Amino acid sequence: MIGLLGKRLMPAALTTGSLLAFVAFWQVVSLYTNPDFLPSPGRVWDEAVRLFHTPVGGKDILAHVGYSLRRVLTAYLWAILLGLPLGLCMGWNRTCEKIVSPIFELLRPIPPIAWIPIAILWLGVAEGSKVFICFVGSFVILVLNSYTGMRYVDPLLIDAARSFGASRRQQFFNVAVPACLPSIFAGLQNALSMAWMCVLAAELVGAREGVGFIIIQGMDLNRPPMILVGMILIGIVGSLLAASLRWAERALCPWRRELV
Question: How many CA atoms lie within 13 A of 174 on its CB side?
């Protein structure tokens, strides 16, 4: 019983220990550097407390996180609705692959940030351009992962289903899609992380709210602790989003619990 409890607590202890070691290292390094170059953890904590009580641009820090999350989740849902079916269709149907793949391969190497100027020209500096940039980043990853997962479904599974009289539709929905769920979830996690990174890049241009706006304000006001608070918020929110998707994967893919 004690051994089992210790085994379960060990990952949490290692995670906590690594975070404490990082903060300690940060504190030591900050003692020997210019405080305006690298603020100490204590100064960053004080700045975080201040931001929770002092509005930035007329909004508190949680409201800024909410604006960024709304943009990310809106783009992410659209990417799921359009990217997953497209990738699965490309992997399942060779005709669809031959039609879509050349166009997709032409656009895929273009980084999401390169779309910012044209997105601003098309949609202005309001919400549309920011959501579009997040959509582009997550859409590409979702298409690639769902396509790859479908292409690498074990042919023996399809043959076995066919031998039992399964229709083409049943082979797709009852065999192929469940078989490529691990690849789909990997794409969902990577796409969400990419959307979160893209929204921050988009908010650096013309935004009046969001975590990226906090970082820009810190730069304009020459407040390094404010910049670091924004960066830490990025890491915390991104980690929570990734953890939520890992939890969903464990629930929907119980056969992979040992791996995820």
Answer: 13
In the predicted structure, residue 72 carries a pLDDT above the cut 90? yes
The number of residues making up the chain comes to: 260
Contacts 24+ apart (CB under 8 A), 89-98: 90/143, 90/147, 90/150, 91/146, 91/147, 91/148, 91/149, 91/150, 91/151, 91/153, 91/180, 92/150, 92/172, 92/176, 97/147
Residues 6+ apart with CB under 8 A from 198: 75, 112, 113, 133, 134, 136, 137, 138
Quick check: pTM over 0.70? yes
User: Are the beta carbons of 145 and 186 closer than 8 angstroms?
Assistant: yes
Quick check: 80 and 143 in contact, CB under 8 A? no
Compute the chain's Rg from CA coordinates. Answer: 22
Structure tokens at 218: 């810190």
Q: What's the CA angle centered on 189, arms 82 and 7, to 5 degrees? A: 155
Give the HSE-up count for residue 195: Cα atoms under 13 Å, Cβ half-sphere. 32
- Whole-angstrom Cα distance, residue 39 to residue 18? 20
> Tell me: the pLDDT tens digits for 163-189?
888 888 888 888 898 888 888 988 999
Query: Whole-angstrom Cα distance, residue 214 to residue 193?
Result: 19
